């Protein structure tokens, strides 16, 4: 890990970070003793009200890195909104809210609320009457509440933009800047992300002052243990190949990613017709339906989840056995975040990518160069196992006579 360009490799325990007994008790209840690098780098400056800009691989504990200081700073006797966390997706916002509540279990009087689009706004207005001190929100829905004057931001002291590169890439930059401009008493701002895009740097330059820069590189200690496979198969055989691998490997929890809503729905129907229980989520589904499907998947009541990239980031599901890229993702970063759903919490994971045409093959070649990951070329044997693909011989040109 680098802090302001200086290499730091110390192992840090939570009880060495000056945290309150209530937070330490909650961490102990979860069985956590050692802070991850991004937590060890972010918690001390955030506790001192400094701005932080943290870049770390997915699955390295960024939620605790900003959540613990925010909870420590929250005054339970003050009913104003004191902390705001912005998330690019509803699913990630709900996940953050759940994690913060688990950390605040021994902090009586600290109230946390998640507000997001797709849920009836009147229900959220009723919940806001309990005067939560911490709001986790998607930018658009937070702006709706601000316009209705059901949320005031003038007393907010800490703001976090989680997965801020993705949030800005999704077109929320105007909402984000408007929200930041409504906080005259803001004391610090944390930008947490897996990558630093130009838009993230612009936000940092305008809204942060002397930020502590934390960079956690993927290494053997925090890099997910994911074995990655590439299968070149015709488009009309991808479904059959998926089924054969599932039958051979007996995975208990699997995520399958498609690029489009239509592919997600088509694949889900095909699997259900073959008596393979599967459900799907995509951006056009009602939020309540998405939450119900995700709850089943988290609890282990659903073996197979088919999704678009709406589910590829920030969903902290520790025990996904395998990820399938049914379609090669359109963006390099999407591949990283998709396969990052497996191999979490130091478990072994597996990722499969199906390649069915030349453009998809070129896209995956680019992804491999970008991520510097080792992806094995394999083929499916008759028994459903994977064997190394035969090496392709270069074409031999005939000499003209």
Account of the 3D structure:
This protein is an alpha/beta fold and 401 residues long. The protein folds into two domains: 2-215, Rossmann fold, CATH 3.40.50; 225-388, P-loop containing nucleotide triphosphate hydrolases (Rossmann fold, 3-Layer(aba) Sandwich), CATH 3.40.50. The protein contains 14 helices and 17 strands. It has helices at 21-30, 37-47, 62-73, 90-103, 121-128, 139-148, 164-169, 173-181, 198-207, 238-249, 261-273, 287-299, 332-339, 358-371, and strands at residues 2-3, 6-7, 52-55, 83-86, 112-115, 134-137, 158-162, 188-193, 212-215, 225-232, 254-257, 278-281, 304-307, 322-325, 348-355, 375-380, 386-388. Strand 12 (278-281), helix 12 (287-299) and strand 13 form a beta-alpha-beta unit. It is globular, with a radius of gyration of 23 Å.
What distinguishing features does this structure have?
17 strands; alpha/beta; nine-stranded mixed sheet; 401 residues
């Amino acid at each position: 890990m680098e802090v302001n360009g200086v290499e730091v490799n110390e192992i840090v325990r939570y009880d060495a970070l000056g945290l309150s007994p209530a937070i330490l008790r909650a961490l102990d209840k979860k069985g956590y003793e050692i802070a991850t690098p991004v937590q060890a780098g972010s918690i001390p400056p955030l506790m001192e009200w400094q701005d932080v800009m943290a870049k770390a691989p997915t699955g390295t504990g960024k939620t605790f890195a900003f959540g613990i200081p925010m909870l420590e700073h929250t005054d339970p006797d003050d009913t104003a909104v004191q902390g705001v966390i912005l998330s690019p997706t509803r699913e990630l916002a709900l996940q953050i809210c759940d994690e913060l509540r688990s950390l605040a279990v021994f902090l009586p009087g600290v109230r946390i609320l998640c507000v997001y689009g797709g849920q009836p706004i009147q229900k959220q207005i009723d919940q806001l009457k309990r005067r939560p001190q911490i709001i986790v929100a998607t930018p658009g829905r937070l702006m709706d509440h601000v316009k209705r004057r059901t949320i005031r931001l003038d007393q907010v002291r800490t703001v976090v933009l989680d997965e801020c590169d993705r949030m800005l890439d999704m077109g929320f930059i105007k909402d984000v800047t408007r929200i930041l401009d409504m906080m005259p008493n803001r004391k610090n701002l944390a930008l947490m992300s897996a990558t630093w895009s130009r838009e993230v740097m612009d936000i940092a330059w305008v809204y942060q002052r002397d930020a502590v820069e934390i960079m956690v590189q993927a290494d053997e200690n925090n890099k997910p243990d994911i074995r990655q496979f590439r299968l070149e198969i015709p488009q009309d055989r991808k479904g059959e190949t998926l089924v054969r691998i599932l039958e051979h490997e007996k995975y208990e929890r699997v995520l399958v990613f498609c690029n489009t809503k239509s592919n997600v729905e088509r694949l889900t129907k095909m699997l259900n017709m073959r008596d393979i229980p599967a459900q799907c989520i995509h951006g056009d589904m009602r939020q309540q339906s998405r939450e119900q499907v995700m709850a089943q998947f988290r609890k282990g009541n659903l073996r197979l989840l088919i999704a678009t990239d709406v589910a590829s980031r920030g969903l902290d599901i520790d025990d996904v056995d395998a990820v399938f890229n049914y379609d090669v993702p359109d963006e390099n970063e999407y591949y990283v975040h998709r396969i990052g759903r497996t191999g979490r919490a130091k478990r072994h994971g597996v990722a499969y990518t199906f390649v069915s045409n030349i453009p998809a093959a070129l896209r995956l070649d680019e992804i491999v160069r970008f991520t510097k990951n080792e992806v094995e070329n394999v083929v499916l044997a008759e028994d459903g196992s994977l064997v190394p693909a035969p090496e392709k011989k270069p074409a031999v040109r005939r000499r003209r006579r």
